[in-house]
């Protein structure tokens, strides 16, 4: 019985690290995180400061260890394509990241990952109304349980 429990626990750790590794590298595939944080108007000096401040100047294995080490119970990782904040309503208004952040703030900690993902999609769809979606809309939510 103890052996089975140890095997299952080991498998759970491997799966968790796999999910975290996928999430970590997906954020890197979407572009340089520093440029995403800084925006298009940032100077070279601003980018260098952000890179040092957030540890993006460190090797990837060190960044990953820091990423995993900072995850705590209840933490959320929400990945989404540009189709979410760029969704438009009939008047041409964009959904925008501030509205997405409010949905996450409002329901993130009290719900599971699947329910939060569905709430985000529901809110974007309600915002758009009858306006067709013009871009892909992908939402991935990871919630740290323990």
Describe the structure.
There is one protein chain. It is flat, with a radius of gyration of 18 Å. It has a two-stranded antiparallel ribbon. The protein has 6 helices and 2 strands, in the order H-H-H-H-E-H-H-E. The chain is 55% helix and 7% strand. The chain is mainly α and 146 residues long. The chain has 2 domains: 1-71, no CATH class; 72-146, no CATH class.
Could you give the topology of this structure?
Layout: H1 2-29, H2 33-38, H3 44-53, H4 60-69, E1 76-80, H5 97-107, H6 113-128, E2 139-143
Antiparallel strand pairs: 1-2
In short:
The protein has about 150 residues and is mostly helical. It is about 55% helix and about 5% strand.
Q: What is the average per-residue confidence, as pLDDT, rounded to a whole number? A: 83
Portion of residues in beta strands equals 5-15%
Strand and helix order? HHHHEHHE
How would you sum up the global shape? Answer: flat
How many angstroms does the end-to-end distance come to?
23 Å
Strand order of the largest sheet: 1-2
Largest sheet: 2 strands, antiparallel
Count of structural domains: 2
Helix content: 55-70%
Number of helices: 6
Salient structural properties:
about 150 residues; mainly alpha; 2 domains; two-stranded antiparallel ribbon; about 55% helix; flat
């Amino acid at each position: 019985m103890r052996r089975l429990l140890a095997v299952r626990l080991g498998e759970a750790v491997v799966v968790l690290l796999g999910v975290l590794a996928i999430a970590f590298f997906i954020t890197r595939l979407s572009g340089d995180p520093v440029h995403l944080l800084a925006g298009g108007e940032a100077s070279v000096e601003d980018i260098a400061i952000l890179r040092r401040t957030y540890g993006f100047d460190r090797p990837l294995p060190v960044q990953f260890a820091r990423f995993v080490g900072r995850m705590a119970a209840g933490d959320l990782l929400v990945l989404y394509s540009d189709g979410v904040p760029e969704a438009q309503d009939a008047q041409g208004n964009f959904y925008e990241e501030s509205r997405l952040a409010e949905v996450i703030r409002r329901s993130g900690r009290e719900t599971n990952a699947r329910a939060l993902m569905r709430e985000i999609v529901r809110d974007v769809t309600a915002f758009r109304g009858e306006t067709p979606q013009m871009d892909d809309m992908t939402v991935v939510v990871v919630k740290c349980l323990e």
